Amino acid sequence: MIGRRPERGGGKGVAGLVREVPQDWWEVEGLFDLCFAPGREALSSYRLRDGIDPIADLCLVMRDETGVIGGAIRCWPVMIGGEKAVLLGPVAVHPTRQGEGLGAFLIYEVMEKARDLDWSRIMLVGDAPYYGRFGFERLDGVVMPPPTNPERVLGAALEPGAWDGIRGEVMRVED
Questions:
Q1: For strand 83-93 and strand 60-63, is the pairing parallel, antiparallel, or unpaired?
Q2: What pLDDT score was predicted for residue 147?
Q3: Most CB contacts within 10 A, which of 11, 95, 97, 160?
Q4: pLDDT at residue 39 in the model
Q5: Residue 83: which of 122, 131, 44, 43 has the closest Cα?
Q6: Which pLDDT does position 4 carry in this prediction?
Q7: Could you give the CA distance from residue 138 to residue 125 in angstroms, rounded to a whole number?
Q8: Which residues of the chain have pLDDT under 50?
Q9: Is the Cβ–Cβ distance between 52 and 108 less than 8 Å?
Q10: How far apart are CA 48 and CA 29, in angstroms?
Q11: Nearest-CA neighbor of 111 among 88, 139, 80?
Q12: 21: left (phi over 0), alpha (psi -120 to 50) or beta
């Protein structure tokens, strides 16, 4: 289950957290390009996202008082063993804002919103020591497209028992 949410960015220079709109796309992509290694689109999680609309209500942008994006997070629908889940990511915080707790705030906010929207499970590919504080644990039997390291496939239950018995390949949600 979800851990305890920190205060938003220590309260420093944050104007607001809003849903991403189409006009934000290039600025958010620029932030992701800045924060991640070149070729990020080649990762297996991008194959699950390519050509699929994200979950609009779970794509958030945090702007500072001048309107500059300090952080952003996106989420996508996936299927595992016939059950729906949220695929969290990418999430990024501008290098000048790192260390303020913005990333943690974005993750907790998305998890709460997902639960409010009746999603019961959320997953990602990441480092267990970092994401464990949000309630994410290794998902045994849940398989991301190769070459994903199974140790990095993590999930959190947004309601008790949401991952019980969920096994199989993570699949794209086709319209």
A1: unpaired
A2: 87
A3: 97
A4: 66
A5: 122
A6: 47
A7: 10
A8: 1-13
A9: no
A10: 17
A11: 88
A12: beta
Q: Look-up: residue for tokens 């045994």?
A: 140
What distance in Å separates the CA atoms of residue 146 and residue 68, rounded to the nearest whole number? Answer: 36
Q: Is the peptide bond before 90 cis (omega within 30 degrees of 0)?
A: yes
The single-letter DSSP state of residue 37 is -
The confidence score (pLDDT) of residue 54 equals 95
Q: What is the pLDDT of residue 174?
A: 76
Question: pLDDT at position 151, please?
Answer: 95
Residues in the chain, overall count: 175
* Contacts with 82 (C-beta within 8 Å, 6 or more apart), sequence order: 168
Distance CA 69, CA 91 (A): 12
- pTM equals 0.88
CA distance 141 to 30: 35
Contacting residues for 6 by C-beta, under 8 A, at least 6 apart = 101, 104, 105, 108
Q: Under a CB-based contact definition with an 8 Å cutoff, are residues 103 and 71 in contact?
A: yes
109 within 8 A of 117, measured Cβ to Cβ: no
Whether 81 and 164 have beta carbons less than 8 Å apart is answered as no
Single-letter residue type at 159:
E
In this predicted structure, what is the pLDDT of residue 156? 98
